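As the work plan foresaw, the team has encoded backbone shapes as discrete tokens. One protein thus recorded appears below exactly as we store it.

:::
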Amino acid sequence: MVQRLLAPGEIESLDHNAIPRLLLPEVRSLFTARAARLRQLANNDIKGIPVDESLSGYLQLMAALVDAQAVVVKTFPAEAFALPPEADMTLALDHNMPPLPVSGTRPASWRAVFSTLLEQLDGLAASQPQIATVLAELRALDDAQLEGCADAVLAELTEGVHPLHAPFVAAALQVVWTMRAGQLDVQRVAPLVTNTLCPVCGAHPVASVIRIGGQSQGYRYLQCSCCSSEWHMVRVKCSCCEHTGKIAYQSIEAADAETPATPDNKANDPSKVARAETCEDCRTYRKIFNQEHDFNVDPLADDLASLTLDLLVGEAGYARASGNPLLWFNAE
């Protein structure tokens, strides 16, 4: 999600002491922009996030899946993404609970979204037998199996979830929660007791991002893995345990950077596009992406493409704080 840049007259009128606490998803552009970003990453066009051939094909597949998400957003009727009853949302607000909890009852429309996503991928399956096999397996799931997979995805469990099935189920659920989140009034979303979970749905963040433009300039936001909302968290603070004393940053140095950063040119530094924020207190990490160094960063897409960074930080003994909805691993 890219925030709109403001004109000088608008900037002067802002209350610069008011940090936007919550950024709701721009649902009409989010998935289209994400698919384009995934293809750029797959083509190895993003300096600072090198992608090898073994990952490129998977990113292209996920770009097609995100394209399918964009189709659903544009074609499904608004009632498919209706919000919960007002009384339920008021109760959540009064008790500092998320108004669209992932642990709550799922809208029945998610099954229709899931079916449409699979239909949109049939053209791709015609030329890729492996994809055709996965789609056939997904269509063969009975109601209990499909709902069980959805339960596990929303609970962010890996046991009992087929790693090739989960991204497609996650994509359908992501559309439903993102579309509903985009309808909310920011003032009707209360901060949670912990800042490490999404205030809209209670899911974990997939990564964090430093935003530019308007009142969000220079501030760090965590992006929800489910509903795509972003909430503010101060920088140099662990997004897992919230400690601040032992934070460090790891990055992949870009050896072929054409424009190295200098004191007079602090932007466009490829080594700062993607970094892992590590915490010695809990020994976990979560990636942080910087819009100041790449305007088009997308936390979910960039996190998916930067597996090299995961490997490096994992070898150093840090555990990933939470997963990516488009990439699942089984216990093995």
User: Anything to note?
Assistant: The chain has two domains: 27-186, 190-257+268-320. The beta strands are 22-23, 205-210, 220-224, 230-232, 247-251, 274-279, 284-290, 319-320.
